[in-house]
Amino acid sequence: MNIASTQQLWGGRFKKPLDKKTVKFNASILFDQKLAMQDILGSQVHAEMLGVQGIITLEESQILIKGLENIKQKIIDQKVEFTEEAEDIHMNIELLLLKEVGDVAKKLHTARSRNDQVALDLRLYLREEILNIKNQIQSLLVTLKNLSQQNKNTMLPGYTHLQRAQPISLEKYFGAYSSMFERDLSRLEDCFKRMNFSPLGAGAIAGTTLPIDRIFVAQKLNFSGIIQNTLDAVSDRDFVIEFISTSSILITHLSRFCEDIIVWATEEFGFIKLDDAFATGSSLMPNKKNPDIPELIRGKTGRVFGHLFGILTIMKALPIGYNKDLQEDKEGLFDTVDTIKNCLEIFIPFIESLQFQKEIMKKSTVDSYIWSTHLLEELVKSGVAFRQAHELIGNLVIYCLESNKYFKNLTKEECDKISAFIYPSLIQLKII
After folding, report:
1. What is the pLDDT of residues 71-120, one digit of tens each?
2. Global pTM?
């Protein structure tokens, strides 16, 4: 089904048709068709409100609602061909409706502008996607909880400056990332609460003199309320900024997790073996097994950051009101949503497939000096001043390095040369 030019919907004050280059440059249908279902839903509720308020007849209202439902089904069945000549998703659907129900379709846009219409569509879209991403994060948290329980007693080195620092358990490691993702979940919930207000009825910027019922629309669409200031309603994109900002923090946490996995999967560390189903090889080197999934997630982090800087740059100098610049808010938002969802979708089964090399991890805690802080604190418990204990254990580490030994190899006589408190402390810590 082809659609005529959108100019017939707004071209009353124009004497010339649009230049073809203008049509192509101005069109957003290639990406904003993603909002088709939200646009139809918003229009159906708007049509219902117009009928209830007596602005159009109830019969006309029902014709519009049913016509929009038919168009919705045709879109689902892929029987609709959107066109750049119709500019955007709003006008594409309105022109489709004109063909579907005739001239009564011309009443649908009563008391509405595309400015408040697109603001509504975006909120409906993002509201749904936030719930989808929340569900994915909750699934990830369940996975991390299971991994924590399975590896409660698995010890490995904890690192500072990427140098072995203190022994930790895999339970503590997974718990750290669980804490990060719980904060991400909380931020998404906050974002949802702030954005869940209806802009519809704001018109272009100043509302309408027609007796509409904005609260009726908000309630029908399950919003918490309406955006009171109509000027703010059409010009606000804080919710887009906040979502992409929250997504940037979320994917930062994923990226850090992925960096750990990439390092741990190296032969130098050997803490992880990658499952064949979640790794790739080399077209040249037959020995290779590459961690492409965590590398791609790490790479896509910069992509989301770019979208955040993009929307901030768009908004930073816009005068209040609606400006066409806001057409550029969508592609970055859509791509951020898709990127986050895709990363979470693959990351959960990926980490479930990892094979943790527990003996290598444990050996790394024994064949090292990462128990030094514990040993220091045992001396403090015995009455040695902290600074003195720090120096004594430092001297012990030097001795071990020069003697090519670890704490587990020391004799009582060797320990006593530095401090009589050291050997009993090694026994207490079960190092010897």
Report:
1. 999 999 999 999 999 999 999 999 999 999 999 999 999 999 999 999 99
2. 0.93
For residue 18, the model assigns a pLDDT of 82
pLDDT digits (tens, 9 = 90+) for 186-220: 999 999 999 999 999 999 999 999 999 999 999 99
- Identity of residue 116: D
The CATH number that domain 115-162+170-359 falls under is 1.20.200.10
- Catalytic residue numbers read 161, 282
- Out of 3.90.950.10, 1.10.275.10, 3.40.50.10350, 3.30.420.10, the CATH code matching 7-110 is 1.10.275.10
Q: Is the dihedral of CA 409, 414, 420, 422 positive or negative?
A: negative
Q: Which architecture, in CATH terms, is 371-428?
A: Orthogonal Bundle (1.10)
CA atoms within 13 A on the CB side of 225: 5
Q: Using CA of residue 42, residue 44, residue 45, residue 47, what is the dihedral sign?
A: positive
The answer to whether the CB of 314 falls within 8 A of the CB of 367 is: no
Please report the sign of the dihedral spanned by the C-alpha atoms of residue 277, residue 281, residue 286, residue 287: negative
What is the distance between the alpha carbons of residues 427 and 432, in angstroms, rounded to a whole number?
5
